[in-house]
Amino acid sequence: TVRNDLSGNPMLDNTDSNTGELIKASPALDKSLTELLYAYYPKGGFYRRHTDAVPNSASILRSYSLLLYLNDGPWDSDANGGCLRIHLDSGKDYLPQNEAPNYVDVSPDGGTLVLFRSEQIPHEVLDTAAERTAVVGWYNRPYTSADISSLASEEDKVRGVMLMVAAGLVTFGVASILLG
User: Fold this and answer.
1) What H or E segment, with its residue span, contains residue 103?
2) Closest Cα to residue 127, out of 70, 44, 35?
3) pLDDT category of residue 167 using cuts at 50, 70 and 90
4) What span, in angstroms and rounded, lies between the C-alpha atoms of 106 and 140?
5) How far apart are CA 93 and CA 113, in angstroms?
6) DSSP letter string over 123-162?
7) 135-150 pLDDT, tens per residue?
8) What distance in Å separates the CA atoms of residue 111 and residue 134, rounded to the nearest whole number?
9) What is the phi/psi pair of residue 79, to 5°?
10) Is pLDDT above 80 for 54?
11) What is the bridge-based pairing of β-strands 35-41 and 132-140?
12) How far is CA 84 from CA 30, 67, 78, 126, in A?
């Protein structure tokens, strides 16, 4: 499957030319965390420039994004718009100042599959002049304790520390009574 081909694939890894250190290009993926949804864009629909993995949100687990277009046959991009624009500049959600636009437009022809790294590739759906449909989804990596703490609010973190202190005091008190 695509997920298995991408998950921890050493063929996608590189070695740093300066240090000789292995750079893991392909994270292990968690099959239970795959997200899929049906995307319908009505006439006039669009989705502005963004990346799919946003720091300090649950989407940070997204490793690969996929789009499978369900439109009927070839798409007339000149008449219908609605292309997927993949940005190749150095920015994320915005074009950096003093940098020329650099992008590739992918026509949403029926049956076309697009796959890219969620945190690295800014993209958008250009305004559409016709209905446009796709299945979109994300292959996610496993979550870690660091992910959980990064998603917690400061108030949640304080509560967590207070609960640990209270649990420690209760444990100490019970031990004192039993040994006592």
Assistant:
1) strand 103-106
2) 44
3) low
4) 23
5) 23
6) EEEPPBSS-EEEEEEEEEPPP-HHHHHHHS-HHHHHHHHH
7) 999 999 888 877 777 7
8) 9
9) -85, -40
10) yes
11) antiparallel
12) 27, 10, 13, 6
Q: Is 37 helix (H, G, I), strand (E, B) or coil?
A: strand
Q: Is 81 helix (H, G, I), strand (E, B) or coil?
A: strand
Least confident of 57-66, 95-104, 116-125: 57-66
What is the token pair recorded at 1? 């499957």
> For residue 113, what are the contacts with CB-CB under 8 A and spacing of at least 6?
66, 67, 68, 69
Distance of CA 30 to the CA centre of its chain: 13
Tell me, what amino acid is at 121?
Answer: I
Quickly tell me which residue has 């864009």 as its tokens: 41
Residue 136 Cα to chain centre, angstroms: 12
d(CA 124, CA 122): 7
The alpha carbon of residue 1 and the mean position of all alpha carbons in its chain are separated, in whole angstroms, by 19
Q: Which residues pair with 135 in a beta bridge?
A: 38, 68
3-state secondary structure of 59: helix
User: Could you say which DSSP state residue 52 is in?
Assistant: S
User: How far apart are the C-alpha atoms of 164 and 91, rounded to whole Å?
Assistant: 41
